[in-house]
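Handout, section B. The chain below has 405 residues.
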Amino acid sequence: MKTLKQQILLSLIFIFIFHCLSYSQGSTYGGTYVASAPIVKNGVSNITISGLQISNTSGSCITLVNCSNITIQNCKLGPSSSIAVDLNNCTNITVTNCSMANVASGLHAYMGSGISFIYNDVQNVVGPYPRGQMAQFDNVSGTGNRINFNSCDNISGQSNPEDLINIYMSNGTVNDPIQANGNWLRGGGPSLTGGGMLVGDNGGSYQIVENNICVNTGHEGIQIAGGHCITIRNNKVYSQLTSVSGVGVVVAMEPIAPCSVQNNQINWTRADGLVKNLYNAAASGVVSDWGTNTYDPTLNASILPTKIIGRTKAVTTEIDSSPALNEIKIYPNPATDHITIESSQDLTIGSIAIYNIKGQKLIEQSIKAGNTDLDTHNFAKGVYIMKISSNNQQLEQRKLIIGNR
């Protein structure tokens, strides 16, 4: 009987977690903030900026120049007349679990490499052009460049966005392309030239845009403006008729082979009331897989939840208040050389696995009732995903941050 009750409890936990974690975009930080003046750092390395609330009516909230190995986490940024996080020639910078509102742009990264903008909430990007991005990579190059799992919501009359994600003259590598993955983007206009995602802007290479959702993002949903070795796949793109809506997915004249646009679902109504899902102006042979994209008339605004900003904080609060889930504790987090998994229940065939932000499994270890230690000293500084399973069913997923040593 006890075993049956445990199995029922674990099943209920799994269903609850699956429901909550099916929406994993945006910040999950629900703690407090400490007011701070704007931050400017030059030539600084190996620090964490955490738990701060910063606004600036005459400039950016956080400015880093020639810095490296810095994590900006759990901060509330804005209002700002300029950029929430402004990076100039920096390497290995992670911006995560931050909330930004009423800023000219959320992130602007000029030059540098290893820039990771993940799990952030951005509301009301106010521009104006050339600002107006949730996140922009500008001449960024090399490996480790990510714009993943963010939520951006722009309320008409309160915002003035351009391209919510813009990748300008930036180059990834053949083995590690620049990623724009799993973002939720909503709202655009009144700009007639802006949209959800603009990649290959003025050139660039090795960029991959996948699993994003764009809703009413302005003139277009996703555009390849130039460059080569760029892939757009498995995205959902929708717009109702608006005064600025143009085309769902666009390839301009400038890109050169090879590029791929594949398996995107689109329902885009342009300003004159006609459905205009796809437009390819590139030369013959530049774009492959064009025929795999589909018009899906069932797509509508409900492909995004009504609330996408601050939504996962509510989920985190519900999880923390659940006695069953509190039976599993993981600490310290942020960690350095180890973590401890404390479980008051015996998980049948229980295990914990840790993945990097590329989805690659780095380590897996069995866990039982009591304490289990897991060695993390070989992990590089950054953000990881922990998945706890029992009987081959995932029970819980949490973020793990490896901080400075």
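Note. The longest strand covers residues 195-210. Compare this with the example in section A.
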